[in-house]
Amino acid sequence: MSKSFYITTPIYYPNDKLHLGHAYSTVLADIFARYHALKGDDAFLVTGSDEHSSKIVRKANELEVGIKPYLNKIVSNFKILFKKLNVNYSCFIRTSDRKKHWPGAIDLWIKLKKADDIYKSTYSGLYCVGCETFLKEKDLVGGVCPLHNEPPQNVTEENYFFRLSRYKNQLKEIIKTDQLQIIPNKRKKEILVFLNDEVEDVSFSRPKSVNNWSIPIPGDDSQGMYVWCDALTSYLSAIGYPRDKKLFKNYWPTACHLIGKDILRFHAVIWPAMLLSAKIPLPKIILVHGMLLSGGRKMSKTLGNVVDPELLIKKFGVDAVRYFFAAHIPITTDGEINETLVAERYNSDLVNGLGNLISRVLGMAILYKTPIHTGPDFQLVLKQNPWYSKSLDEFDLHKVTNKILEKIQTLDKKIAKEEPFKVIKTNKTQAHRLISDYLQEIWTLSQLLKPIMPNTSQSIQDAFKYKKKPILFRRIS
Ligand code: MSP
């Protein structure tokens, strides 16, 4: 039986178009899911939309459209973008889906209540609608939320609370011992430091008078579920919890939650505590990526410094954008991104590097009539290149792209040194032998690139089949 690999992206707020940061999370998850599927695992990728936020209501009201038509339109644009990015998701979960998502969110709530972890109290303090988070004075910079540049609301509300404090010590142990693995280590340390401080219970509902669009609390229609409590449950509902036990059992608890570092606490503290309370096994991994920066600051809609992924796809092609995400920065760090940087990398690595190499080798094979045979399948390539599966099993995409670049450069040098174009004039058999060798190496490259650049990989393999030189990347000035 094949091994299950369940990977999730954060579910995105449909209060605006998605920007490059969102595309980044989704493409990374797609690369890992494709790699696992090619390896023979039963891979399942979930992405989706987080639709009960009060900022959605605010946006729909501003536009004077009904919430549902507004959401349908924007969610359909998410799906169009993911298609353009060649993201092959297994399930797109919408938290407004009353059949697929609500039963899971409600069931979990009931479990928390049964565990005596939900109680009613008064919340008095600050709330940032942008973050959908209750804030403390110490979280503010100059009186505003540093992420959204907006003063928070002052709220006093009668809410249901989740007894998060109860799980502090258990969480510490679970994270320290990697029962819940947080990658990279610096993020694990950050959470352990956070858990050393006092952990307070969290407000888990908001009055319906504040956000009438939220999921009603079972047994109390006057309150709606806090949007994070609702959204986190999508990781379960997307794989059938509680309506399809077989599907759920197939993928849970193999989960790897890929998230940006901005939402680490929700995932590494609140989410596992909810699962502990409900006596549901914990996910295996929380994989935390860094932020894409624009002008030195986190790219975000609020700061107005976003890059539109569609523009980059139009200019460079989808595989170049996917390659850039994998190659530009190690996923665990932050990194600047702009069109100039993409263009530089596109020209050096893809036009001059990969594209030129493929075109030279196939060009020679066609010109000198060297027999062109396809090479090893993906499984065999994995066996021949143990560094590749090791790096991808450790989510180190940067190492993979560096090594692929190294292979391209080594082969370029080899061709320059062995000069098959000269050898052909004196020793045809030897020249064919050399070129056959190069063909095998570029075939291997096409396999290694499959999860990252599926179209390019296919074009290279088609070129072997039809014995035609492919045009992979056109120079862009
Ligand atoms: N809806 C919540 C997530 C709920 S998951 C149960 C949310 N949504 S979001 O639309 O604001 O952002 C989702 C994610 O997009 C971020 O957490 C992060 O993973 C990714 N990114 C948003 N901006 C980003 C960058 N500038 N760079 C990299 N990733 C970024 O939070």
CATH fold assignment of the largest domain: Rossmann fold
Shape by Cα distribution: elongated
Number of strands: 16
Overall CATH architecture of the largest domain: 3-Layer(aba) Sandwich
How much strand?
15-25%
| Derived structural class | alpha/beta
In the CATH scheme, the class of the largest domain would be Alpha Beta
Helical proportion? 40-55%
Relevant CATH superfamily of the largest domain? HUPs
Keywords:
alpha/beta, 477 residues, 16 strands, Rossmann fold, 19 helices, six-stranded parallel sheet
Q: In short, what is this structure?
A:
The chain contains 19 helices and 16 strands.
Structure overview:
- This protein has 477 residues and is α/β, with parallel strands linked by helices.
- It folds into two domains: 4-289, Rossmann fold, CATH 3.40.50.620; 339-466, Isoleucyl-tRNA Synthetase, Domain 1.
- It is built from 19 helices and 16 strands.
- The protein has helices at residues 20-39, 54-63, 67-84, 102-114, 168-176, 185-196, 227-232, 234-237, 245-251, 264-278, 309-316, 318-327, 339-367, 378-384, 386-393, 397-418, 420-426, 428-448, 454-466; strands at residues 4-12, 42-49, 91-94, 118-128, 133-135, 153-162, 181-183, 202-203, 205-207, 216-217, 220-225, 256-260, 285-289, 292-294, 297-298, 335-336.
- It is elongated.
- The mean pLDDT is 95.
- 5'-O-[(L-methionyl)-sulphamoyl]adenosine binds at residues 10-13, 21-22, 24-25, 50, 231-232, 259-260, 262-263, 291-292, 298-300.
Could you give the topology of this structure?
Layout: E1 4-12, H1 20-39, E2 42-49, H2 54-63, H3 67-84, E3 91-94, H4 102-114, E4 118-128, E5 133-135, E6 153-162, H5 168-176, E7 181-183, H6 185-196, E8 202-203, E9 205-207, E10 216-217, E11 220-225, H7 227-232, H8 234-237, H9 245-251, E12 256-260, H10 264-278, E13 285-289, E14 292-294, E15 297-298, H11 309-316, H12 318-327, E16 335-336, H13 339-367, H14 378-384, H15 386-393, H16 397-418, H17 420-426, H18 428-448, H19 454-466
Parallel strand pairs: 1-2, 1-12, 2-3, 7-13, 12-13, 14-16
Antiparallel strand pairs: 4-5, 4-6, 6-8, 9-11, 10-11, 14-15
The structure holds 5'-O-[(L-methionyl)-sulphamoyl]adenosine.
5'-O-[(L-methionyl)-sulphamoyl]adenosine (MSP) binds next to β1, α1, α7 and β12.
